[in-house]
Amino acid sequence: MPLREYNKKRNFRETPEPKHAPKKSKSKDHPLMFVVQEHHASRLHYDFRLEYNGVLKSWAVPKGPSNDPTVKRLAVETEDHPLSYGNFEGVIPEGNYGAGRVYIWDTGTWEPIGNPREGLKKGHLEFKLKGKHLHGQWMLIKTSRPASGDKSQWLLVKRTDAYANTEPLVPIEDPNTGKVSKRRKTAEPAAAAKKVTSKKKARVKKLPGFISPQLAELVKEPPEGESWVHETKFDGYRTQAHIEGGKVTLYTRNGLNWSQKYPTIASELKDLPVSNAILDGEVVWLDDQGRSDFQKLQNSLKAKESRRLIYYVFDLLYVDGVDCRSFPLKERKHRLEKILAEFDNRIIRYSEHVDGSGADLFEAACNYQLEGLVSKDLDAPYRSSRNSGWVKTKCKLHQEFVIGGYTVGEGSRNGGFGALLLGAYEDGKLRYVGKVGTGFTERSLMDIHKKLKPREMTKSPFDIASPKGRGVHYIKPGLVAEVSFGQWTSDKILRTAVFHGLREDKPAKEIHIENKKSLKSVIVPKKKVSPKQKADNEKLALTNPDKILYRKEKITKLQIARYYQDFAEVILPHIANRPLALLRCPEGSEKTCFFQKHIAGKVPLEFIPVTIVERSGPKAYLTIDSKEGLLSLSQMNAFELHAWNCHSDAIENPDQIVMDFDPGPGVHWKQVIEAAFSLKEILDGLQLKSFVKVSGGKGVHVHIPVAPIYSWDQIKTFSHTLGKEMASRNPDRYTVNMAKKVRGKRIFVDYLRNGRGATAVVPYSLRARAKSAVAMPITWEELKTIEGPDVFTLENAIKHLSKRKVDPWKDFFKKEQRINILKPVVSSAA
């Protein structure tokens, strides 16, 4: 057997490498494949493979190919590989032959010069290559020196032709240090190379056409480790933007020109501060919570309404004539972020990423009802294929299927269709996987039915498990549906499928069942911790206790949890049994954070759920009443805590008022202090005791405890009246209009935190800012000497609280004040 040695060396229960019988070429005219794979084994090397006689003839090239005809690269002959290996990328697990990561560095076709059988036999094979990096004429020459075992040593040599030059092609690993150089260039004709005298002139003058995109493999769990970053998985249309000479062209993932579908995006991209560029990203429609909605995206496109669409950009392939695809992702993203930061456009946005632990972020993404995550290797170049450099984890089972037929509609759908018959390809054959009959609107039912009728055919397109029976109509495959579903049955049938829309950007022939792979082989082992740290961690029962959540101060999750535990006695009275809104930052204060108000599914025992009726129906909120509850919040990376102005046993009766002074640009901190004292003067006149805290953000919060006998409308009306009174006394200094465009250099007296469902940051809470500021309660006298709203960093707050002898808010919960100005309203409400 030609592949006996290949199969003997591999344990296919552990390695993801393909196991296939050799295949012969389809015909004499069939183009022969070549592939060069970058293999990060014990030493970085390159595997050079040529398709011949149904297998891949293979050589290991330690230093990689060279375009310099004077350089002869050692090429050690290795065992033949199956043709399917030409598409392999992934990680060969530790303990297996060739353990390490494998990338496709180059691929294309090769053409022998002369008789290849004779060339291989004599040890002198000449050929032409046509790839992305390697071009022109090459030679493989066998030497008289044997390699290990029965394998031979060869030399890989570039022939002198238009593509020969001295520029390095591949990153080289230093045998002494193990470090890998980053430089890597595509082959260029020597005639052009001789004209290059500077980096500026080396840039390409004209951009290439559409570039086949890099695609992500579906995996069971997100990878861990410092080399991975994680981005939101959008539910939209993958879009490649080409910007050149004032013209913008927008391509789908399949190379279709959709510029006319996104006129607003195309128009905005014209102003991007670059001479030319190729961007990779996704066009989405966002709901009010910032989540992408594919159905709404389709509706917008049908209505030719593109103003609501957002283009999230996550990769940079070319910029100002420089091909960035060979750069590591971290460099591409750095350049992209800088360009878009200068651009500062509402429609064209940078797709943020977070570092480190994917598990917590994936949990957060699913809790927030996002699609999932796309995790990316920071050190990898951009590769036009589906490979393990990008992997995706989905919160729900969700993929595309081929429409192969439909059933006749009944009842309200009489005259239309009832359900779509779905399929996916297996080895070129269409397998029936079930049907979808929900998720349609009246409009989509009509539109889809019009597309189904012209495609009807008598013969079933399904090759495997074709459905039969009355009311079944078959159609010619070509339409693709996006569907979410609960699970697969044992016989590969969908359960609880829901239709989301038609996909016009994906060919039917590419649709197959997405099987989740395991990422065990790429998970980086956790760092070792000291015995003291281990004991401390076990005591607090935290996962990832060493995760840095404030980068500049290097404050860890453990330090934050310890703060909340050590000072729980003063924190809990301000948060216990109040409905909470949590600002969670799974990867740190400067990364992606999100608010969580509602809870769903299983919750820790330390949380106390409370049901609140909202306009959309009953919603579950969480409350806590213990140190253990605070610890669970720390575990969730919910270190910025916001609460309602009421307790859970009296939802309709707030027991405090919070007034926030939010300064506009150019307002001095002393003016904010003066604003707080101006309000205190008004409150003193109303015989209302007030308490003050620095917010840890930009301003000051004044809290007014009240008896829980007023309605939300009454409290909001009163707080609005306070703000208007301040604005009327000094209209040049204060405003109750929150619009920043009219605020100017005035202080916004924010009374809006006093409506039903509104929240304010609780006393002693950390703030999710670049700096670890605490919302610190202080006395009115202390406010006169405070230098800014964020002076109480975590370190300073701990020192302050450790030395503090008297709680400045010790009487806060003893005050159940009545609002004298509202006496007529109170008497009618009492």
Automatic annotation (TrEMBL):
Q: What is its EC number?
A: 6.5.1.1
Its recorded reaction(s) are:
ATP + (deoxyribonucleotide)n-3'-hydroxyl + 5'-phospho-(deoxyribonucleotide)m = (deoxyribonucleotide)n+m + AMP + diphosphate
Domain ATP-dependent DNA ligase family profile per the UniProt entry, residue ranges: 302-426
Please verify whether the record's keywords include Magnesium. no
Record region (Disordered): 1-30, 168-200
Keywords linked to the UniProt accession: ATP-binding, DNA damage, DNA recombination, DNA repair, DNA-binding, DNA-directed DNA polymerase, Exonuclease, Hydrolase, Ligase, Manganese, Metal-binding, Multifunctional enzyme, Nuclease, Nucleotide-binding, Nucleotidyltransferase, Transferase
Mind telling me which PROSITE patterns this protein's record contains? DNA_LIGASE_A3 (PS50160)
The GO molecular function terms of this record are: DNA ligase (ATP) activity
Q: Which InterPro entries match?
A: DNA_ligase_ATP-dep_C, DNA_ligase_ATP-dep_cent, LigD_ligase_dom, LigD_PE_domain, LigD_pol_dom, NA-bd_OB-fold, NHEJ_ligase_prk, NHEJ_LigD
User: What's the cofactor?
Assistant: Mn(2+)
This protein's record includes keyword Metal-binding: yes
One Pfam family cited in the UniProt record for this chain: LigD_N
List all Basic and acidic residues biased stretches.
1-20
Quote the protein name from its UniProt record.
DNA ligase (ATP)
